[in-house]
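QA checklist item 7 of 12: single-chain prediction sanity check.
[x] sequence parsed
[x] length recorded as 258
[x] structure emitted
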Amino acid sequence: MRMSLRITRTALLGAALLGSALAGTAHADGLADLKGALQRLQGSTPIKGVLKAETSRKVGEGGESDDYAGSASVQVEDGAQGLRLQYGRDLLARMDADQLAAAKNPNAKTPALYALKEMGPDDLRPMVSAAENLTRNIERATFKAEKSAEWQGKPARQLTFAVPSKVLSDRERKYVKEFDGALDVWIAQDGTPLASQLHWHGTGRAYVVVSFEFRQEVKSTYALAGDRLMTVRQESRFSNSGAGEKSEVRTVKTLQAG
């Protein structure tokens, strides 16, 4: 009887430990949690807000460089009727002034027009509907690791993905010899995305003698509006050099809903 009781206790202890381990494994599956969150956050909660873009570009180096900069804000609304933009009177006046300046001088600085190049539908859609865009990014990447982390002082989980060179077109890959890409996503305990960082770096050679190098980094911060995931801030940097030329572009977009 004592031996039978000892065996029963051992079996129960083993079952409890196994159950605990399985529960820990399920909780640690951040990729599944992230995918589940992205699925439920492709919602249609109507939103209104102000979208602002600030961008700058530097071409060349030293005293011979050309610098461009601009900023613009538009009212944005996304709901049952689709995505709508409203350009304020002040912005329209700035656009008119820029077009007049460009007509008089092809080299004139046109800050309003320059910033508005960052506000096409393909640029704005990821801001108001971030889940779909982040889903595409992780689907083309390979999951590598998960670890405990912090985001803005709160517990989080950091998922790391490798980004393959197939994100480039066939023509681009023909010239790229080395490519390194990574995507990091910070998620809450329930899988809700908090932030992400995408990084690409590549080098190559074109036309035998022209070597080039490029870098791209995109940092995004997310927030919820009902059942919709939004990008409330996105900072992107892109640089490339080759054939004696160098250029750098930095763009910051913010979405303030309300």
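[x] summary fact logged: The chain has seven helices and ten strands.
[ ] second reviewer sign-off
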